[in-house]
Design goal:
The complex is a heterotrimer of chains A (about 450), B (about 170) and C (about 325). Chain A is α/β, with parallel strands linked by helices and about 450 residues long. Chain A folds into 3 domains: about 210 residues, NADH-ubiquinone oxidoreductase 51kDa subunit (Rossmann fold); about 90 residues, Ubiquitin-like (UB roll) (Roll); about 100 residues, Up-down Bundle (de novo design (two linked rop proteins)), CATH 1.20.1440. Chain A contains 19 helices and 13 strands. In chain A, helix 5 packs across helix 6, helix 15 runs antiparallel to helix 18 and helix 16 runs parallel beside helix 18. The radius of gyration of chain A is 22 Å and the shape is globular. In chain B, strands 2-1-3-4 form a 4-stranded mixed sheet, covered by helices on one side. In chain B, strand 3 and strand 4 form a beta hairpin. In chain B, helix 3 runs antiparallel to helix 4 and helix 7 packs parallel to helix 8. In chain C, strand 11 and strand 12 form a beta hairpin. Helix content of chain C is about 20%, strand content about 20%. Chain C is globular and about 55 Å long. Chain C has 4 domains: about 90 residues, Roll (Ubiquitin-like (UB roll)); about 110 residues, Alpha-Beta Plaits (2-Layer Sandwich); about 80 residues, no CATH class; about 25 residues, no CATH class. Classes of the chains: A alpha/beta (about 450), B alpha+beta (about 170), C alpha+beta (about 325). Chains in contact: A-B, A-C, B-C.
Chain lengths: ~450, ~170, ~325
Amino acid sequence: MGRKLLLEHINVPGINTFDVYRSKGGYASVEKALKMTPEEIVEEVKKSGLRGRGGAGFPTGMKWSFLAKPEGVARYLVCNADESEPGTFKDRYLMTYIPHLLIEGMIVASFALGAKTSYIYVRGEMMPQIRILERAIAEAKAKGFLGKNILGTGYDLELYVQPGGGAYICGEETALLESLEGKRGNPRIKPPFPAIAGLYGCPTVVNNVESIAAVVPIINEGGEEYAKIGIGRSTGTKLISAGGNVKKPGVYEIDLGLPVEEFLYSDEYCGGIANGKRLKAVVAGGSSVPILPANLFMKTINNEPRLMSYESLSDGGFVSGTMMGSGGFIAYDEDQCIVRNTWNFTRFYHHESCGQCSPCREGTGWMEKVLHRLEHGHGRMSDMDLLVDVSKKIEGNTICPLGDAAAWPVASAIRHFRDEFEWHVTHGAEATVRNFGLAHYADPLPKPEVLA
Amino acid sequence: MLRVEDAQVSVEFSPELLNKMADAVTRYPEGKQKSALLPILHYVQAEFGWVSPNAMDQVAAFLKIQPIEVYEVATFYTMYLLKPSGKYVLEVCRTGPCGVVGADKIMDHIEKTLGVAEGEVTTDGLFSWRGVECLAACGFGPVLQIGPEYTFYENLTESSVEKLIGDLRKKKD
Amino acid sequence: MKVTIDGIPVEVEPGTSILNAARQIGGDIVPPAMCYYSKLEGSGGKCRTCLVKVTKGSEKDPRPMPKLVASCRTGVMDGMEVQNITSPEVLEARKGIVEMLLINHPLDCPVCDQAGECHLQDLGFEHGAAKTRYEFDRRTFEKIDIGDKIQLHMTRCILCYRCVFTADQITNTRLHGILNRGDHSEISTYITKAVDNDFSGNVIDVCPVGALTDKTFRFKNRVWFTKPVDAHRDCDKCCGKTTLWYKGEDVIRVTGRKDVYGEVEEFICNTCRFETKKTADWVIEGPRKISHKSVISANHYEFTPLPVVKTNPVLLEANKEQFERDTRL
């Protein structure tokens, strides 16, 4: 069992209040960090090897060191809590139960970046979490950890919570900044990157909730200690949101490098597939990453056991691998229809496309219509090739990564489950009443349980 | 395009709402008051149940921006209701992971229980419902939320949905 | 700074975009641009038709860029090497973009006033496929009048945002904008409002397709039956330099002077555009030069056919089709 760095005290009653959180060693990192120089903090984070937990996996320390520091220009830290990737719900969990951890991380990170005003951009649907955070901020301010002259060090910081309005695209950092400026969430054209010109044209860092929270243990224990956890370039712990047909859905903190078999089947984590069914497919990192059939997910193409790490999950590239993404783990049991699921995801991307650039605006709608036709039993054999071609026309040609995110699930589903798509064409009427079943995708490892 | 008569219904902002709006503006640097637009539209919707064109014009005047800038934003984000809806809007997550655990059945059941199609209002004006995209509670699906507090109801079943609707009906009295 | 596009080197000022560097070279290697408009700040980057491949980032950092980039919004670096029409990848991507732009376009060119000077038409002709693979209902909207002189036919719109930038930057108020999102996005005023100010007519000139058209010219004539003539007048609101479009003795339309990329040289006011349609109002400068490739030039101007090397039978054979097309008129 791995050590919990973020969720250690999650079950302590009243941990969402300042006093209880403080009594469990909370805000120690603020006291420590304010005695360090900002450069030392950035250096610690670099040493930790922490990679952005929002999906792209870009090293956080590096991102911080890119921040431009022109004289006389304000700098901003914005926390990305616009969690809307299907399959991911770790940030909601963290903000609901242990909001002070995020605030503590925000103070340390803001100090390291020299930000005097920081924002937490929370998606509008999470109004309860916004209220929780606002209360926690008021508590921290009353105790002198926010506001003017924090702990007598002369450092001032104001922290605000900004609600979104309901748009997946605002999870993209430049769209988030646009939205924070009170505009439509249209991603900006890069360059310039936010580190040079972000919020209000000032240098800005945008970090995911979990990345900010991870700064707390990094400062408390030192970057080198943090880097000892994990495997290779995947250091530290990661929150995984387990959903779909697992027996025990929920948020789990794992040491990166945990074998996927252990994660999926041990009772400490997911506890296997619900209702004694067998595993058909897995989306390992939120809906945007390629879907994998069970057999390819459990073992890589070279027959090595797959691990929950950035490198191992992407082993095999797009041909036989997937991505860590934001850690939204969705398991599909034998009764799930891949075509239906792909259509569902594509409908999501169609709905969430901002409509700014043409390949994504038009292409997502097109793919959804074709998949809708396939799912409802009047598809054609040529549709699969059409879908792959359209997804290729979108991928890489858009302003922001939403185009790629819309293309990958479709391309990977057809790559790995083509026979199921073809069956939907040849057995159109049958496909509306029963599903294709397991075929050869089944995970070869677990023995099916005998049902009474 | 809206019908012109909808646009002409004028509304009056309460002092509390105006206070909240004034407070929201203080969070941003001088001259960047437009940033308060999203929070303010949430306040307006909580007060009136929807954001009417007249309310948006007043928000624009308050923030010293052009009305079209408010319309552009309000129509972009899905949470803002651009026409009058039921007192309780049941927003059911319909995306992937919730779909896997039966969101479609829940939506069918809500439709049957309320007797209105998606986006329509029940005759007593109490309820409307719609499918929305991922609410980031995938482990606890199917889920629905009800504004303006956006309370979450998780692990829905057909009977729990019926009970929820029954409870909300009773609350009216 | 030196940049090489499709093997052709050019020296440009720092801060120039790849697209503008290509325009300095001119000719076939200029990427098409549907949303970029050099006179409108912040425009570009959206339609993705100008995607190019950067095979060498710069002299300092020669790594190629991982993805195709929008040439209108990517600045050049010293020593940069760019491929446009020499890269099959770029052409393939561009074909895809054109297909995407057209799947929801009504293709009603026979009844569209923009036909003949429509950028989407040119783009479709050059890069599009003869047949569509899209078998679903196309998105449609109702035609609306924004003001008494301008008609908005949203069905034809490709959401380039140019008219929004124009209203923001050229006029003093903006009443129309982009509403909704994704493929439901539309240009609209939300509630019925008349867009009416001295420079509102410029949205017609910047529109690359037939979404915003001049109601005073609506269905009057096909552009290729009209004669463009440069003219000017003393105007207290704008530069007064325009192109008059004649049918017989009548001025049936007034527009800004558009260059070879379809951009006006200077914006003009509504008085010049809509109110002054008598020859007596204007000082005529002479016929407007129109590219011989444009359908507008058909029947109007004499031009020399492309030179053909008559002594080389192989070249002659290869050029035969082109030669016949050019000399048929």
